[in-house]
Amino acid sequence: MIWDIMRGEFLGTMFLIVFGGGVVANVLLTDTKGNGSGWIVIATGWGFAVMIGVFVAMATGSPQADLNPAVTLSKWILGIHTGAELVGSMIVAQMAGAFAGAIGVWLAYLPHWKRTESSDLKRAVFCTDPAVAHRTGNLLCELIGTLVLIFGIGAIASSGRIGGGLMPYLVGMLVWAIGLSLGGPTGYAINPARDLGPRLAHAVLPIHGKGDSGWQYAWIPVVGPMLGAVVAAGMWHRLLPV
């Protein structure tokens, strides 16, 4: 059972990053067909990435389709997931899937890394950076973005008015909305696996002129979402007990 769930989380998160990192690469890397198409394309692409990632995870063994350690943590706090072994296994699978997905993006855009001069743009395909470096503000943005993600997922799932087949579409729309509304300050990681897995891939892959992997900032998109998960779970438990 745990292995089935791990397989689903791995594959779902891998597809999430292939589509999500892929749209960033298409917009930012030099001489792509989508170069310069802008933030709304990136936010839309990430919404679709979440949608297909959820479908893939559900189809391949993980009916919960978390794809996000912060979501997994919040469900554990609320008693939806039981057992540290399950939670730990899911997070490992999510991190590994994100790493693998980032390799897929690198391969798909292989000729474009050398054509792109900016190391910052290359890193942005893999992981987030703040628009304005302000550690408290950046941490709060990631916390708030993750809080509304988790609370929003809970609200959609508990509404009782939708079929299970609509969940991936609605969660994708929620992530799309978060990107449009709250993505400006930090690039809205709202998912430790989405940021840390590809950041590790950036560090080890032979990307031409890639520069550093931004490790001085890397703790923000991990700690912020995990704090947001705790706050969201606490709010949900207080307002709408599971």
Topology, pairings included?
Elements: H1 2-28, H2 39-59, H3 69-77, H4 84-108, H5 112-115, H6 119-126, H7 135-158, H8 167-182, H9 192-204, H10 220-239
Helix pairs in contact: 1-2, 1-4, 1-6, 2-8, 3-4, 3-10, 4-9, 7-8, 7-10, 9-10
Structure explained in plain terms:
This protein is mostly helical and 242 residues long. It has a single domain (2-239), classed as Glycerol uptake facilitator protein (Up-down Bundle), CATH 1.20.1080.10. Helices cover 69% and strands 0% of the residues. It is built from ten helices and no strands. The chain has helices spanning 2-28, 39-59, 69-77, 84-108, 112-115, 119-126, 135-158, 167-182, 192-204, 220-239. It is globular.
Shape: globular
Main sheet summary: none
Total count of helical runs of at least 4 residues:
10
What CATH architecture do you see?
Up-down Bundle
Number of strands: 0
The ordered string of helix (H) and strand (E) elements is: HHHHHHHHHH
Give the proportion of residues in helices: 55-70%
User: Might you state the CATH topology name?
Assistant: Glycerol uptake facilitator protein
Given the helix and strand composition, which structural class is it? mainly alpha
Q: Give Rg in angstroms.
A: 17 Å
CATH class identity: Mainly Alpha
| Low-pLDDT residue spans | none
Mean pLDDT: 96
Domains, number = 1
Intertermini distance: 24 Å
